[in-house]
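User: Second chain of the day. Same drill as before.
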Amino acid sequence: MSDVKIAILGGSGRMGRMLIRTVLDAKGAALAAVTERPESDWISRDAGEAIGGAPLGVTVTANAEDALRAADAAIDFTSPDATVAHAEVAARLGRVLVIGTTGFEPRHIEALDAAAAAGAVLIRAGNMSLGVNLLTVLAEKVARALDQSFDVEIVESHHRHKVDAPSGTALMLGEAAAKGRGVDLADAAERGRDGITGARAEGAIGFAALRGGDVVGEHDVIFAGPGERVVLRHIATDRAIFARGAVKAALWGQGKPPGAYDMIDVLGLRD
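Assistant: Same format as last time:
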């Protein structure tokens, strides 16, 4: 069986470089293309040389459609608007698109859902790691088991360069807790407290975001009840866990019918 050809959309960032290296090391995968913004100094360079290694025979391009045509799957950790554009191309070409981008607004999600309905195999998750996705399953189960006398708080920490808050992972955990409680996260979420806020609303799912240093990612889901607390925690120490999960998803997506999937599907954790 031939290797799955994978394109990396947005190769020059920390995550993009790691994805390139992970694809090169992954059994059953081959690097097909790498893209960057038109103004990037990576354009027209060999991707291997761009990451400080030997030439790979893959020239970095700004044309995402050409990259997707050359690939069976693409991995995208770029920006919400760029990801939507890539999803539309994936739908036209019937490709697998693995999405690790975060910071989406409702309009972006609607566009992604439309691309999945139009022919793309979209695998999207706020976090690609095995541990975090297990944590998501546990958060839903614990939220279902405990009544509303247990307040739910989600605390996340990331490096100082992260631009969105709460993190995509925190929101994913919040969605899981909300599903366990049988509520809509948009109605239950409390994303910020400052000044005289009054008492905590019963049933609220609170978020707190910490930023500093080089923290890869830490997430706590706290269920605080009368006289006791249940704390679910995940600590990431190596960004490679996200790249390995994304490549696993790209391989898993081959032969799947068009639609929207997530890492729970990839890992076989769905009930």
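The chain has ten helices and eleven strands.

User: Great, on to the next one.
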